[in-house]
Design a protein that fits this description.
This protein has 4 helices and 11 strands; from the N terminus they run ααββββββααβββββ. The chain is α+β, with helices and mostly antiparallel strands. It has an 11-stranded antiparallel β-sheet with strand order 6-5-4-3-2-1-11-10-9-8-7, with helices on one face. 22% of the residues are buried.
Length: 209
């Protein structure tokens, strides 16, 4: 009988310890998200081949404009084209690692710091251009901390915050006859700034996770 009481006591202590552990928050918030999303996040962050066409709308205070967007991502490079008003007509951006090149409709070419400054002038904000390739896929940039909001399905994100930016995934679309769903509408805002960017994907032309 004594042994049985001891066993029951140990079992209750173990259950109490487990319950206590369940209330603790891990130091890394990512460790607390569903396993399904953890696996999908890793695959999406490793995706380096995709292509999309869409539209973006920028609101900066009382001013605003829209532009067409085409993004072609490859493992080592990205090619971005913006077609629209306010000097964005025929604007082409080339990314290669941390290097950036920009060519306007007038043929003028800028690189690196000069290109970043011109993009900030045209867009009205300094977008983290190197992180956008991940944000377009609905995941944070793996090189920086992020606070994620996992969707109810446990397989996607509803949004996240990273580097002072709030990214909301307002709508998704299925990728062909697969289990993947990709962002169709993204909303970006900058903490403490009257800057809003809404991006609508008209077509995911390519996606190879």
């Amino acid at each position: 009988m004594s042994s049985r009481r001891t066993l029951i006591s140990l079992t209750l202590l173990a259950l109490g310890a487990l319950n206590g552990c369940a209330t603790l928050r891990p130091a890394d918030e990512r460790a607390s998200v569903p396993l399904e999303w953890s696996a999908r996040r890793a695959m999406l962050q490793a995706t380096s081949n995709f292509e999309l066409t869409g539209r973006l709308a920028v609101a900066l205070g009382e001013q605003g404009y829209s532009a067409g967007l085409r993004w072609r991502q490859r493992p080592a490079t990205a090619s971005i084209r913006l077609d629209g008003p306010l000097g964005l007509g025929g604007l082409e951006v080339q990314l290669a690692g941390t290097s950036i090149g920009l060519r306007g409709g007038d043929g003028r070419r800028l690189v690196d710091d000069a290109a970043r400054a011109e993009l900030e002038r045209l867009l009205g904000a300094s977008l983290p251009i190197g992180s956008l390739r991940y944000w377009l896929l609905g995941v944070p940039d793996p090189s920086a901390p992020a606070a994620e909001r996992v969707a109810a399905d446990g397989l996607t994100l509803a949004g996240f915050e990273q580097g002072g930016w709030q990214v909301r995934i307002a709508q998704r679309t299925p990728w062909r006859a697969t289990a993947w769903s990709l962002p169709q509408r993204l909303e970006l805002s900058r903490e403490g700034r009257e800057f809003r960017l809404r991006l609508v994907v008209d077509q995911w032309r390519e996606f190879r996770p």
